Amino acid sequence: MTTNLENYQKSVLHAFLNKEGRLKSIPSQKKKKLVVLEYLVQQLEDNKTYSESQINEFIKKYHEDFCTIRREFIVNGYMNREDGNYIKRDESLWTNWKELK
């Protein structure tokens, strides 16, 4: 990642995460939202299947609006959902914030 992109990512995370690592708010700007979502989903294990309640509990560690964040994980290609189970997708399939202006 280039220095400008790294700096952008760090500044967004600094602006939206408190000292405890919880989200202060969900960014409304798409690029910033994707930076935050990518950070969150990277905390999940690869190739592990999560139940909906497990994903909800994971998200609640960061923000109370787990429904919105869970939906954003799916909409932006970070996770697949099938029969109420969730699995993290390969990074190459994620919506890439680095490509947005």
Automatic annotation (TrEMBL):
InterPro entries the UniProt entry points to: DUF2087
Domain of life: Bacteria
Stretches assigned to the DUF2087 domain: 22-86
Protein's name in the database: Transcriptional regulator
Species per Swiss-Prot/TrEMBL record: Fictibacillus phosphorivorans
Species lineage: Bacteria, Bacillati, Bacillota, Bacilli, Bacillales
